[in-house]
Design goal:
Helix content is about 60%, strand content about 0%. The protein has helices spanning about 10, 20-30, 40-65, 70-105.
Length: about 140
C-alpha cells in the first residue's frame, strides 16, 4: 500500500499531533491577507507565507505518516523530510529578501533565517551582525 492508496475516511482515524498542527494553522493564519507593498517587500512576504504553508503541509504529512506502517510509512516520512527541506529553502529566500528590503530602506540587517542541515541548499544569513547598517 502506498500513501496514494489511503482513503479519505482513514485519514480521520489517524492520530494527529495536535500541538504542532494547531501551531501550523496559527502560523498560516498569521500570514493570511497581507497588505500589498513594493515588489521586493511582496517577494519577501510571499516567500515567508509560502514557506509557512509548506511547513503546515509537512505537519499534516507527518501526522498521516504516524498512522501508517511498513513501506507506506517510510514513503510518507521521506515525503515529510523533503517537504520540510523545501519549506526551509523557501523561507530562506524570504529571509534573504527581507534582509535586503531592510538594508535598502536604510534600516539594519534583520536575520530571520531558520536552522537547516548542511546540504539542504537553503540560503544562509550574511556575515553582517544583526542590527548593523552596513551592506
Amino acid at each position: 500500500m502506498s500513501v496514494i492508496d489511503i482513503r479519505p475516511q482513514e485519514m480521520a482515524t489517524i492520530n494527529r499531533p495536535r500541538q504542532p498542527t494547531q501551531a501550523a494553522v496559527a502560523a498560516v493564519q498569521g500570514f493570511a491577507g497581507p497588505p500589498s507593498g513594493e515588489t521586493a517587500t511582496n517577494v519577501a512576504r510571499s516567500s515567508l507565507a509560502s514557506a509557512v504553508r509548506q511547513l503546515a503541509t509537512t505537519v499534516d504529512t507527518y501526522a498521516a505518516a504516524r498512522g501508517l506502517t511498513g513501506p507506506a510509512r517510510a514513503a510518507a516520512m521521506d515525503l515529510t523530510v523533503r517537504q520540510r527541506a523545501d519549506a526551509l529553502f523557501t523561507w530562506s529566500i524570504g529571509a534573504t529578501a527581507l534582509d535586503a528590503v531592510n538594508i535598502d530602506a536604510g534600516h539594519s540587517h534583520q536575520h530571520v533565517f531558520l536552522p537547516t542541515s548542511p546540504g539542504e541548499g537553503a540560503l544562509t544569513p550574511d556575515t553582517e551582525p544583526e542590527g548593523s547598517h552596513d551592506s
